Amino acid sequence: MTRSSPATVSVIVPTRNRPEQLRDAIESIFAQTLAATEIIVIVDGADDHATIAELETLAARHRAETTTLEWIVQRERRGPAAARNRGMDAAIGEWIAFLDDDDVWFPDKLERQVVRCQSSDAALVIGAHAVLRRSPSGAETVMADRQPAAGEPLAEFLFCRARLGGKKGHLFTPTLLLNRAAADSARFDEDLRVHEDWDLLLRLEALGARVVYLATPLAQWTVRSDAQPYSQGATVHDWRFELEWARERRDLLGERGFSGFCLSIAGDQARADRSARGWLRVLRTAAEGSMSPGDAFTYFGTLLPERVRDRLARRFG
Question: Which CATH number goes with the domain that contains 66?
């Protein structure tokens, strides 16, 4: 494909028992200024009759569109990672995009992202962008605290703070756009129910993939209080799980990324569990790697009142 030729894009949407939210997600794909070639919805379980009925209605409504809507019904529930893999196997596009069933894209998402990614000379391309986070109360926040620095390892962008009081980066699955070479190089780990997106991205990076990042929010991520997002699976995990996840991927994370993951991700779980033992175990494990001053400051700062943390961040950030 030349850079001036039309891009072919396959959009993969895994879903389970969320027909109303799925409708909004799919309508946001049909509203794109750059039409997708196909939308592939993976229905995770043959008993999800309401979703299948909604898809039939949507297909009839958009029968005249150039974008085709098709769906694959998995007889047994296998989780989001397996659903996305099934969609990737079926996709025909030169670019593969992902959208969760409870999120929506802004109309120019594909057009802006594809054009930007086409300008990359990397063989394996991972496109990503900022998102607009909408809370259950309706408050909106742009999740674009910082962009990846030139040459910055992906794990350090995601899990480490570049300075005292600094922010981590964000890469959300509904923002991802892979070129065909990247999509053919790796698949989601179907044994994982959480962090399967991070796992995939780290493995792609190890193969030489490069991230092309747009700081403009091109999707809305809705945080819901009434139900757990299907994309997060149903596995209960705690700080022990997080530390084990990091140990198994230490080579992919790198020493600083390993420490950053322990402090920011496992540490959050230890605090949520109100586990002093977990807090100390996380700290000891992170010390095995390479802790940055920003990560250590943030971790110890959780012991301080919020106003004191903010004052220190302004003073030393």
Answer: 3.90.550.10
